[in-house]
Amino acid sequence: MVSKATVDKTIARLDQALASGDMPPAAYSLAERISKRLKSPVRLAIMGLPGSGKSRLLNFLTGTEVIPKNVKLPSVLVAWGKVKKIDCTLADGKTKSLDSFDIKAINQLKPVFIRLKLPLPVLKKISILEVNIGTHETEQKRALTWAARSTDLAIWCTQDFTKAEIKLWNTLPSALHDHSLLVMTKADAHSDKDTRAKKLGALRSAAAKLFSNVHPIDTLQALAARGKDGVINESRLAKSGGQDLLRAVLHAVDQGIQASLDGAVILFTSYQISDLATPAQKTPEPEQSKPEAPPDEPTELLVPKEAPTPPPDRDDFNSEIVTYLADRVKELQTQLSESDALDSEMIMAQCYEYVEGLVEQLTTRAANDPDILHTLDACQDAADMMLLLQLENQDSAVEDAVVLLLQIKRDFEQKIAA
């Protein structure tokens, strides 16, 4: 298990290097990302087809009934918060907050995404996203693409891991495949040991090329293993498969943290970032003595290998972005004028593609201009909102997507005028 002391020391070393102001922009951006990752809970996503037992598994991992039985919701992120709070993101991008998990009030808002903050200790270590992928292949792929952008560890819930599921799983980034678990939920449906063993064997065979193991869990029994007084029946938990799954999740979480620590070590070595500075003891200065000469070696935390490359003129760059967005809007207008019927799915897909293209340009720019990172984050949020609009597929989604695209263009025009 990764020690807290190692994590804390690495964070302190990263923060000290960031505060020095001596790092090249590329190194600064990387150090900032690693520091943020180590300070934040590991982002776990529960994925799978509708009805595969995702909500029950979420309730088990959090140790409480977060999502009631037979409740249909959009994707839900459960994260740490000192007080319970529910934030519902609407189709227009606005957020409405609720003090309680009132299903009727939530349904009236028709949110496309829900963020639920709870004061549960486990959420200091992991946040949990239950991904609602819908029933049609196109929206399923969109949902998984959206979720993968903010996932460190993925759990796929299944009973059979069919060819359709394998096809969906393969749409996820290969890097996420290396940080994932396959869980056979609803193992209680196979109470007979022989039937269960046969089912598990078939599932392991189907998933052998994609997962190193399959974790069966009788989720109802795992939930029941925790008594009303909070005391856990260890025997019942082990028999349900819940204990093995918890160990697997914690091991995967540790691996993710270790990967960030390894990235920090590479950063420290590549950019010659020294260890944490220790305060020097002050010695009395002799009377009428001359000031000591500065040491031969620099005392900075970091000695960059080369001077940072100055970023190109920001106004020119902003003008290029405005031109790019203006051209994309013209393309949409041309296609709409030449089309007899409104193809909302095509327009939504293109709007998302345009914003993704903008994110790529900003990512390249951010390597030499850290000040652009705030704009990059805003555009990534816009790309996420585009995907949510596609998933919700409401009548106003096309209008909302185009308005969002025009808003980004206006924001860059204001940057030029400032």
UniProtKB/TrEMBL annotation:
InterPro entries: P-loop_NTPase (IPR027417). Residues 278-318 are annotated as: Disordered. This is Uncharacterized protein. The lineage of its organism: unclassified sequences, metagenomes, ecological metagenomes.
